[in-house]
Amino acid sequence: MQKITLGLSLHRPEMIPFIADCMRRHAAIFLEEPPAAGFEQMLEGALDVDDYLRPLDVEYPAFSRDMCDLLRELKAEGKKIFQVEPFLEILLGIHEFFAKDHHPDELHKDSLQYPVYLAERNATGALLAFYQTAMTGSFEKTLEAVKEFARLDAARFRLRDSLRAQELVAKVGKYSSSYVEAGVIHYPLWQLLRQQVLRQIQVRMTFLADVALKTMGHKSHLYGPGDQLTLLYVFHPNIAKTMREQVLAGRSLIYSKIIEKEELADDPNKFPHLLDELACIRTTSQLSLDDCRRLFPRVRRAKSADARQIVADHLAE
């Protein structure tokens, strides 16, 4: 029986061994990234990894370098490796279109470019509005702003996952086993693949961060309150205002202040990012909406370390 494994993971260096172990059990690997110039040359060793990554402006450079090294090994072992992320590929094409002095009203409304443009414009606009409100607005206004962003981000993810599922379904049937890389927020992609592939193809999902946590004796998940809020809107786009929605939004405001955002230089074998995220999730899960309301003005301009101490002191009261 053919099989597909959706590997949900974090883009952190400590995840590489778990990703590698899972990828090696499959004949084909589908990466969560748009096709990039020089990719095949990099895999073959004809292009230096740093030279390949330099024009891509990657968000997590240490992880990306380690992934490229892994992909080279897998290529040498005979694995088929593809970059499949149509939403981002279309978005890059739109940016190139605008760079040539074209304008949004020139996008054909019956093209794929148009819904991608709208989804990206709406989510990005809501994110900027949230940032502005978070700096000077009240807790209530900031709460509404983060919920608005999460709703529009969820709409963007629905489109992104839908486009990716369609392209993957057209490709995975050629291989006995396929590994599909995805971030943890793309959990709904599993359902889309199950609905669209042939019945004889088995689709399974693995949370690689959970696998890593189990090696340390932790049984938990790594969905922060912001991700939980976004997924709530992905599955229930028209949900009425609920207390759960309010609490997740409030917790997400605090979580975003205490989480470490940069790549940590600690030994990856000590799982610095996983343990940091787990600690922040456990901390914010203790906060009520009123706790968040009281903490928000105190942490909104604080650095992460200071914000953590403020929250810890509050919980100790």
Overall description:
With 317 residues, the chain is α/β, with parallel strands linked by helices. It has a domain at 3-86 and 164-215: Cobalt-precorrin-4 Transmethylase, domain 1, CATH 3.40.1010. 59% of the residues lie in helices and 9% in strands. It contains 14 helices and five strands. It has helices at residues 16-23, 39-44, 49-53, 61-76, 86-99, 113-136, 139-172, 188-196, 208-215, 225-235, 243-258, 272-284, 289-299, 304-316; strands at 3-9, 28-31, 80-83, 177-183, 202-207. It has a five-stranded parallel sheet, sandwiched between helices. The longest helix has 34 residues, at 139-172. The mean pLDDT is 94.
Relevant terms:
alpha/beta, 317 residues, 5 strands
Secondary-structure blueprint:
Blueprint: E1 3-9, H1 16-23, E2 28-31, H2 39-44, H3 49-53, H4 61-76, E3 80-83, H5 86-99, H6 113-136, H7 139-172, E4 177-183, H8 188-196, E5 202-207, H9 208-215, H10 225-235, H11 243-258, H12 272-284, H13 289-299, H14 304-316
Parallel strand pairs: 1-4, 1-5, 2-3, 2-4
Briefly, what is this?
The protein is built from 14 helices and 5 strands.
The percent range for strand residues is: 5-15%
Radius of gyration: 21 Å
> Termini separation (Å)?
57 Å
Major β-sheet profile = 5 strands, parallel
The assigned CATH architecture of the domain at 3-86 and 164-215 is 3-Layer(aba) Sandwich
User: What pattern of helices and strands is seen along the backbone?
Assistant: EHEHHHEHHHEHEHHHHHH
Q: Enter the CATH topology name of the domain at 3-86 and 164-215.
A: Cobalt-precorrin-4 Transmethylase, domain 1
Number of strands: 5
Mean pLDDT across every amino acid position: 94
Number of helices: 14
Order the strands across the largest sheet as they lie in space: 3-2-4-1-5
CATH class of the domain at 3-86 and 164-215: Alpha Beta
Going by helix content, strand content and strand pairing, the class is alpha/beta
Low-confidence stretches: none
The helical percent reads 55-70%
Shape verdict: globular
